[in-house]
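Appendix B. Chain record.
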Amino acid sequence: MNIPYLFPNRFKKIGWILFIPAAILGIYILKSGEVPAFFETSVLAFIHESFINSDSELISNYYFEVIENNILDEILVIITIIGALFIAFSKEKHEDEYINKIRLNSLVWATYVNYSILIISTIFVYNATYFWVMLLNMFTILIIFIVRFNWQLIKLKKEASYEE
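Structure tokens predicted for this chain:
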């Protein structure tokens, strides 16, 4: 079955090669706060928020400014998302209608679980911790989908082996 919105199967391996190191390094940087100065550079910020400016105002917004920023976290987020997209949306070696159905069901299921977590977090998590929940929420729908889809494929393979 030819599904035009899926990547070729070889992208799955590329996805794992991108996803695993970027996610591990991202988690390490998140936990340790250590960021190499090598990635410090000038970037264009569409919106830049400063907590204290020269007039001692608490928060002020600046638009379309060039600022100094360490871009390692942005690079890791992009690589992690691209890797997860390649893993999640690459064809299986033997793609058929049933695997397509599993893929769709897993995506719907992951969406429900992801937004349930987000709703519960909105009700019970506040302040800066909520910011971290929202930050991690960028990845959860893809990760939940990958886990659910692969779990369903494993179950399918076990059922097929029992029938033989």
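Further analysis of this model is presented in Appendix C.
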